[in-house]
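Pasting as-is:
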Amino acid sequence: MFEVGEQVFAAATVSRASHVYCFFNDAAGNVMRLTPNNVNPNSLQPANQVLRLPDWLVPNPAFIMDASQPGTERLACYATADDVMDRLPAPLQGTGVVNIPGYRSVDDVENALRHALGADAFAKSEVQWRVIPKRAQPVIQQPTAAKATPNV
Protein backbone atom coordinates (compact mmCIF):
# COMPACT_ATOMS: atom_id res chain seq x y z
CA MET A 1 0.00 0.00 0.00
CA PHE A 2 1.28 3.45 -0.92
CA GLU A 3 0.05 6.95 -0.23
CA VAL A 4 -0.52 9.33 -3.12
CA GLY A 5 2.82 10.89 -4.04
CA GLU A 6 5.03 8.12 -2.67
CA GLN A 7 7.64 6.69 -5.03
CA VAL A 8 7.25 3.07 -6.09
CA PHE A 9 10.21 0.83 -6.89
CA ALA A 10 10.15 -2.69 -8.33
CA ALA A 11 12.65 -5.21 -9.65
CA ALA A 12 12.44 -8.15 -12.03
CA THR A 13 14.75 -10.96 -13.12
CA VAL A 14 14.54 -13.64 -15.77
CA SER A 15 16.03 -17.12 -15.42
CA ARG A 16 17.40 -17.05 -18.97
CA ALA A 17 18.28 -14.21 -21.32
CA SER A 18 15.01 -12.77 -22.58
CA HIS A 19 13.51 -9.72 -24.19
CA VAL A 20 11.51 -7.95 -21.48
CA TYR A 21 8.67 -5.48 -21.96
CA CYS A 22 7.20 -3.87 -18.84
CA PHE A 23 3.93 -1.93 -18.72
CA PHE A 24 2.50 0.26 -15.97
CA ASN A 25 -1.25 0.67 -15.45
CA ASP A 26 -2.32 3.56 -13.19
CA ALA A 27 -5.53 3.81 -11.18
CA ALA A 28 -7.12 6.08 -13.82
CA GLY A 29 -6.81 3.41 -16.52
CA ASN A 30 -3.78 4.78 -18.33
CA VAL A 31 -1.19 2.30 -19.62
CA MET A 32 2.40 3.03 -20.61
CA ARG A 33 5.38 0.92 -21.58
CA LEU A 34 8.20 1.48 -19.11
CA THR A 35 10.79 -0.71 -20.84
CA PRO A 36 12.25 -0.53 -23.35
CA ASN A 37 12.35 3.26 -23.45
CA ASN A 38 14.37 6.15 -24.88
CA VAL A 39 17.06 5.91 -22.15
CA ASN A 40 17.33 2.11 -22.36
CA PRO A 41 16.06 1.08 -25.81
CA ASN A 42 17.36 -2.49 -25.56
CA SER A 43 14.75 -5.07 -24.53
CA LEU A 44 17.30 -7.87 -24.02
CA GLN A 45 17.73 -8.69 -20.32
CA PRO A 46 20.56 -11.03 -19.24
CA ALA A 47 19.67 -14.05 -17.11
CA ASN A 48 19.63 -13.50 -13.33
CA GLN A 49 20.46 -9.79 -13.62
CA VAL A 50 18.12 -7.40 -11.84
CA LEU A 51 16.01 -5.07 -13.95
CA ARG A 52 15.21 -2.10 -11.70
CA LEU A 53 11.98 -0.20 -12.33
CA PRO A 54 12.88 2.62 -12.31
CA ASP A 55 16.65 2.21 -12.37
CA TRP A 56 17.49 3.92 -9.09
CA LEU A 57 21.25 3.45 -9.62
CA VAL A 58 21.53 5.86 -12.53
CA PRO A 59 21.53 9.63 -12.03
CA ASN A 60 18.83 10.27 -14.67
CA PRO A 61 16.39 7.36 -14.92
CA ALA A 62 13.97 7.30 -17.86
CA PHE A 63 11.00 7.53 -15.49
CA ILE A 64 9.93 7.78 -11.87
CA MET A 65 6.94 5.83 -10.61
CA ASP A 66 4.82 7.82 -8.17
CA ALA A 67 1.59 6.54 -6.67
CA SER A 68 -0.65 8.92 -8.59
CA GLN A 69 -4.19 8.66 -7.25
CA PRO A 70 -6.25 6.40 -5.00
CA GLY A 71 -7.04 3.00 -6.49
CA THR A 72 -5.12 0.01 -7.78
CA GLU A 73 -1.96 0.33 -9.87
CA ARG A 74 -0.36 -2.57 -11.73
CA LEU A 75 3.01 -3.39 -13.23
CA ALA A 76 3.27 -6.30 -15.67
CA CYS A 77 6.42 -7.53 -17.39
CA TYR A 78 6.38 -9.89 -20.35
CA ALA A 79 9.43 -11.93 -21.39
CA THR A 80 9.96 -13.41 -24.85
CA ALA A 81 12.76 -15.46 -26.43
CA ASP A 82 13.05 -13.04 -29.37
CA ASP A 83 12.66 -9.31 -29.89
CA VAL A 84 8.98 -9.04 -30.83
CA MET A 85 8.55 -5.26 -30.86
CA ASP A 86 7.95 -5.11 -34.62
CA ARG A 87 5.24 -7.81 -34.33
CA LEU A 88 3.21 -5.90 -31.75
CA PRO A 89 0.28 -3.62 -32.60
CA ALA A 90 1.43 -0.13 -33.60
CA PRO A 91 0.36 1.59 -30.35
CA LEU A 92 2.55 -0.80 -28.32
CA GLN A 93 5.54 -0.07 -30.57
CA GLY A 94 5.46 3.67 -29.85
CA THR A 95 7.74 5.65 -27.64
CA GLY A 96 8.02 4.26 -24.16
CA VAL A 97 6.95 6.13 -21.03
CA VAL A 98 3.90 7.76 -22.61
CA ASN A 99 0.24 6.75 -22.32
CA ILE A 100 -0.73 4.21 -24.98
CA PRO A 101 -3.93 5.23 -26.79
CA GLY A 102 -6.67 2.60 -26.75
CA TYR A 103 -5.21 0.57 -23.87
CA ARG A 104 -6.90 0.86 -20.47
CA SER A 105 -5.22 -1.97 -18.53
CA VAL A 106 -2.36 -4.43 -18.67
CA ASP A 107 -5.06 -6.99 -19.51
CA ASP A 108 -5.51 -5.15 -22.83
CA VAL A 109 -1.75 -5.40 -23.39
CA GLU A 110 -1.77 -9.12 -22.63
CA ASN A 111 -4.67 -9.71 -25.02
CA ALA A 112 -2.77 -7.86 -27.75
CA LEU A 113 0.34 -9.96 -27.09
CA ARG A 114 -1.68 -13.19 -27.24
CA HIS A 115 -3.26 -12.10 -30.53
CA ALA A 116 0.06 -11.00 -32.09
CA LEU A 117 2.36 -13.72 -30.75
CA GLY A 118 0.25 -16.63 -29.52
CA ALA A 119 -0.51 -17.64 -25.95
CA ASP A 120 2.70 -19.63 -25.44
CA ALA A 121 5.13 -17.05 -26.86
CA PHE A 122 5.69 -15.11 -23.64
CA ALA A 123 5.91 -15.38 -19.88
CA LYS A 124 4.31 -12.81 -17.59
CA SER A 125 4.91 -11.55 -14.09
CA GLU A 126 2.68 -8.94 -12.46
CA VAL A 127 2.55 -7.01 -9.23
CA GLN A 128 -0.19 -4.66 -8.09
CA TRP A 129 -0.58 -2.29 -5.18
CA ARG A 130 -3.24 -0.12 -3.63
CA VAL A 131 -2.85 3.64 -3.48
CA ILE A 132 -4.58 5.48 -0.65
CA PRO A 133 -5.09 9.22 -0.14
CA LYS A 134 -2.23 11.04 1.48
CA ARG A 135 -2.73 11.06 5.22
CA ALA A 136 -3.03 14.42 6.92
CA GLN A 137 0.18 15.38 8.63
CA PRO A 138 -0.18 16.03 12.35
CA VAL A 139 -0.08 19.68 13.29
CA ILE A 140 2.85 20.39 15.54
CA GLN A 141 2.14 23.05 18.13
CA GLN A 142 4.87 25.61 18.40
CA PRO A 143 5.84 26.38 21.99
CA THR A 144 4.58 29.75 23.10
CA ALA A 145 6.82 32.10 25.01
CA ALA A 146 5.87 32.47 28.64
CA LYS A 147 4.73 35.98 29.53
CA ALA A 148 6.71 37.60 32.27
CA THR A 149 4.63 38.93 35.14
CA PRO A 150 6.10 41.71 37.22
CA ASN A 151 6.56 41.13 40.94
CA VAL A 152 4.58 43.61 42.96
